[in-house]
Specification:
A four-stranded antiparallel β-sheet has the order 11-10-14-15, with no helix packed on it. A three-stranded antiparallel β-sheet has the order 5-8-13, with no helix packed on it. It folds into two domains: about 40 residues, no CATH class; about 90 residues, Immunoglobulin-like (Sandwich). By secondary structure, the protein is mostly beta strands.
Length: about 150
């Protein structure tokens, strides 16, 4: 399927190209030179491409602890910010609050630089949180951006 291209990191990619190619076979025949090339774009190559493209992405976090009051109860939350890239393609953010022993996932169609992505945990103050772990994963690749922060009390 041909597409006009998309902007990714300030650069147009996939411009008039076939997307999601897994294999390309090229046969060149001429009177002076003939050759055949077969290239497979496998999982290893895709993972390496993602690592190269997103090597400058940095994650930072703002943590809010559980608050209990007479009129309201607020769940703990972590707002994760992404810097170093204009816009990430569709991805999933997974956040683990260590005291809960549970991971919360949310997906997005494109995460822009500087925008926070908030994930809420539970509202049980007995589940003390010592650290937060964030993991950004992408469809069809094993590459992940992972960061862990200690919670300051």
């Amino acid at each position: 399927m041909l597409k006009p291209g998309i902007e990714l990191g300030g650069e147009i990619i996939d411009g008039q190209t076939a997307t999601h190619v897994k294999r390309a076979d090229l046969i060149l025949l001429s009177p002076k030179y003939s050759t055949s090339i077969a290239y497979e774009y496998g999982q290893k190559e895709r993972d390496a491409d993602y690592e190269t493209i997103f090597k400058n992405v940095k994650l930072t976090a703002r943590y809010s602890e559980v608050t209990s009051g007479i009129f309201d109860n607020w769940a703990r939350s972590a707002t994760i910010y992404m810097q170093g890239f204009t816009r990430l393609p569709p991805c999933t953010l997974s956040v683990t609050f260590d005291g809960e022993g549970k991971t919360y996932d949310a997906s997005d169609s494109g995460w822009t630089e500087g925008n926070g992505w908030t994930i809420y945990g539970n509202n049980k103050s007995a589940d003390r949180c010592q650290s937060i772990r964030a993991e950004v994963s992408f469809p069809r690749t094993n590459f992940k951006i992972i960061k862990t922060w200690d919670v300051n009390r």
